[in-house]
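Usage

Read records sequentially. Each one opens with the input sequence:
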Amino acid sequence: MADLAVKLAKVVGDRTAKVLAEELELETLEDLLRHYPRRYVVRGELTDIESLVEGEEVTILARIEKVNLKRIPGRKGGILEVIVSDGRAKLILTFFNQAWRVKDLREGREGLFAGKVGLFKGKRQLAHPDYLLIPEGEDKDEAVSDFAGKYLPVYPATKKIPSWKVAQCVRLVIDSLGEISEPLPNQYRNALGFPTLRDALRQVHLPASLDEANLARERLTFDEALSMQLFLLTRRNEIKKQRTKSRSKRGDSGILAKFDSRLPFELTAGQKRVSAQIEADLCGNSPMFRLLQGDVGSGKTIVALRAMLSIIDSDGQAALLAPTEVLAQQHYKNFQKLLGDLALKGMLGTAEVSTRIALLTGSTSSQERQETLAATRSGEVGILIGTHALLSEGVEFKDLALLVIDEQHRFGVEQRDVLRNRSEYPPHVLVMTATPIPRTVAMTVFGDLDVSILDELPLGRTPIQTHVIAASEKPQFLERAWQRIREEVMRGQQAYVVAPRISATDNSDFSTFGLTADELARVRRLSGEDEGEEITGKYSVEELFPRLRDELLADLRVSALHGRMSNQDKESIMAKFSAGEIDVLVSTTVIEVGVDVPNASIMMIMDADRFGVSQLHQLRGRVGRGEVPGLCLLVTNARNDSPAMARLEAVASTTDGFELSRLDLEQRREGDVLGSAQSGATSHLRLLRVIRDEEVILRARQVAEQLLESDPELNSSSALREEVDKLRQEERASYLEKK
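and closes with the structure output:
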């Protein structure tokens, strides 16, 4: 009898094991048993052919209605056309030069047919499908083990290894299994009404009923949630055990008090509440590990800066890690502007109490870098702002007391630990994210952090109005939009025009905002495009810029900005835009996060259906940051009845980032949305979906807390401890792959 760690070759044979590894990345018995069915085909219930979607890989159960062999004049062989039906709709199966199949494919027979759905002259078809015919005769259920149940599992599969081949392998594995360690203690398993792990694995693949399959799936989903929560809580407990230096507040004589006294506005109630939470953490002996999340424009930067100034008051240093040079430079300039002479330590005209801010990025000159490193090492630099350059060798601090990480989902856990390990005392860590995260997502992915939420706009800020423009159906609305930009500029305001790519034939910009090839294909389907066509799109920076500059907005000052420009050029253009020397900035998504130009009041997003929900929300947050209300126009050529249009209407209907984040996660896989920070974690999630399985996650969190309270090292359950260790190893391996 085999255990879960055994290689598949020992059970299914070398040849089949090789195909499973190459096609589906399945190598052990556990890998295969965790390759769960997508759905179940019920014996006697034919597949609804009308529900099949073009381009989808399907496995269907249907009855052969007609077989026709068409000869091709002057050629050997011919085209075998088999029409199958569910009693309501028909599907054509085509085979080229395979006339011998007529012996098997006879009228009246039922079978499983697998392939990619295509359209030919408006009719659905499968070309060269794999198939498995159900045996004829009264004893067919007993005769063939492949159909030994009423509910036939349909698996994620490929052309080389169709669903029923996977099912055959699964049966072999289940029959060969020995005892399996039960990770869930009996008291919890019985209370939850779950089957054992061994029974759950068998029942999810070979269910006697759909209720049995659902309960097995619920058990396996809970296991994923539990191991994730144990992993995060264990890491959190390890952090809490660490000891660091208390950073007590100086009082009214420090730089924080001076800064507060100069603020031209009052902090919101939320900013005061979160600042108090951070202050209490900084005064403690355990390192802070806190997630600060808030909607666009909620004032996270001020809260983070106040925390850094509090650290400077305690004679420590702070570092801010940003994901891009544009954002790092924006923070640097913003902090200098906010602090004024409080940031001029060592220079003439400095305030009585002051510090020094420095910037370190990949484009910092060699001389500036050496000067900055020396000043940081000596403690002269109080706040060091930078990109991944902060993680490189040679960056040393005199006393790094606080690490602020902006845009957490772009950094892995191991990366943030690099800086945490460069101090005599473990520094406090404050993670900021501009993407609002629903509670269960935060609990599942950031469960090792304490969470603070800013859920209100700063005083005086007005919500942004958003409208969808269906350009192809109402071109006059698009003309009016260009006129609206001109009106805003005539009032002394500025505008953004955002395009999804740099050039009309270039798709590379999609990768800059997290769209994989599969995701891009999905976006195209949502927007109603033919997946077989080359994706060129209607709008790009290189196409729009000359058109706006020379025709549509010829009387305005128009400039372009995109990721292929040199850092110097990008910085120069942003400086001019910030200074009001540019009226309209035509840009890609390089302005998505952190760019703060209060005078910009209107944004047009071209081909808006090509952006994710959360990204649209981030982009529109660049306007309305001053006293004038913001306006965002979403331009699209998507059909009115398409899912893409529904997404845009949803974005236009609310400015609640938490609500939009839920919508985004419902439409995309969690790993795609949340990115590399969870690379090890999310690869473990085969069944769990953080939005759909909210109750499962909450229950798993409670069980995890109870388990660790009574058994912090999980000594009583070696199987659970192994699951947590697996997550640790996956996370580390994923980080090493990126280095």
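Summary fields computed downstream for this record:
- The longest strand covers residues 57-71.
- Residues 246 and 283 are 5 Å apart (CA to CA).
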